[in-house]
């Protein structure tokens, strides 16, 4: 029987238990993947601690991974046993084996290994929709990306620069700022020692930014709005510091007829065509060398609780993976 991390009740990292789970028969359109690595993401924390409601208890956390197809269910087309695949947005990645719908699997190009894929699918495709669809970034744009040294932040900084933008980031502490500067950022503001609103104003000669990408939430709102140009866009795609508190929508008018959105990856990859388009763009930009994927931390899957503690304490940088 395969082993998995199982959450029996909502709570802290200690509610995650390493145990064997039943291997069920495959249904139509499903494949079984022998995992080689799973990605670590804040959304895993949100489901574990109840910020997001899990569909049922107990459950196996995790939303992205990569490995090898070891079994095909009925009516599966386009995949074979032995294919290397990756997926994201699928429940149950913290497991030695995972059952995935075939139409949610993406065949990996030879140039991308499974550990890199596990580290980049959810974070990289998030960067793709943020930079190419939510706000199509290009030459002449100035963007601000919070959590610049995080998993999405390191990918987004490189990709935004590749698209021609001027890229400003925020990070906590000199080491994280230095890491972000190695990954495409023109300027990185240390929010622990600087007022990021004043710093953005100074860096842009008062012109401010076209778009702010914010995965932090409570700690950066509403100050992020003061970093935007008139009719600029605030994009909230996470809440690592806690939920943005309720506010009067009139503040968007007061601060310059601003726009605000709360997108998600599922909203941009709901169809197979959308999923393939986003993944292809990610594979291409990584294979070209324009975006490098740096795996900063590796944890054995059985020690997922330690991985969550590190992630929640903000002691991690870049991408983290759980290895099997």
What does this 3D model show about the protein?
The protein contains nine helices and 15 strands. It has 324 residues and is of the alpha/beta class. It has two domains: 175 residues, Medium-chain alcohol dehydrogenases, catalytic domain (Quinone Oxidoreductase, Chain A, domain 1, Alpha-Beta Complex), CATH 3.90.180; 124 residues, 3-Layer(aba) Sandwich (Rossmann fold). The strands form three sheets. Strands 3, 4, 5, 6, 7, 14 and 15 form a seven-stranded mixed beta sheet that branches. Helix 2 crosses helix 3 and helix 2 packs across helix 8. The longest helix is centred in the middle third of the chain and has 21 residues. The chain is globular and about 60 Å long. The two termini are 14 Å apart. The mean pLDDT is 96. Keywords: NADP, Oxidoreductase. GO terms for molecular function: mRNA 3'-UTR AU-rich region binding; NADPH binding; quinone reductase (NADPH) activity; zinc ion binding. InterPro entries: ADH-like_C, ADH-like_N, ER, GroES-like_sf, NAD(P)-bd_dom_sf, QOR-like, Quin_OxRdtase/zeta-crystal_CS.
